[in-house]
Amino acid sequence: MTGADSSRIPWWRAAAIVVALxxxxxxxxxxxxxxxPGNPAPPATATSGPNGPITRAMATGPLAAFxxxxxxxxxxxxxFADGDGKPLKLSDWRxxxxxxxxxxxxxxxxxxxxxxxxxxxxxxxxxxxEVLAISIDRKGAVASAAFLDEAxxxxxxxxxxxxxxALGALQAIGLPASVLIDRDGREIGRLLGPAxxxxxxxxxxxxxxxxxxxxxxxxxx
Length: 221
Hints:
Elements: H1 3-6, H2 11-34, E1 67-68, E2 79-82, E3 87-89, E4 97-103, H3 108-124, E5 129-135, H4 141-150, E6 159-160, H5 165-169, E7 177-181, E8 187-192, H6 200-220
Parallel strand pairs: 4-5, 5-6
Antiparallel strand pairs: 1-8, 2-3, 2-6, 4-7, 7-8
């Protein structure tokens, strides 16, 4: 083999270089199309539901652990009962924003959280919003009612699920667990553990969820 032959690049290596250069050129040409300068990508921390203004930025302060769902999944149609034993389903509240809170009498963080939930219900509860505090305590309605009295949370209506099936249906890994649900029965987001639900940040979040439905009704007219 001559010196000239030994310095020649094999044909397959030359072909690979040409293909690689071609791919780089295509990617360079497509970049302005896929990423136009006037349309920057939204920040990863700001997600919103399909209807409106709920964003990750609202999960701040006492609600820093609140997890906003970018794509709102439908919530299971929970079955439970009121204090008189009347069977109820979560779908009975369709058309109203709800904050479903799962708790039990033996849960110390639940006892601490209850007055704040009651304050939230007193302030914002009405035709557009309700706190659904559902006891999953196996002791039933009597013990749960006494708990609400002791915790000074009588502004909350008594709902019970002694079967504790709601815990699995909501995929909650502990208590307390709170899930914010929009008027269409979809999960806006959730918070596992106690929270100051009477804080200004919580009020802002709930009012934003209520406003979504009001804006939707206005646009439908």
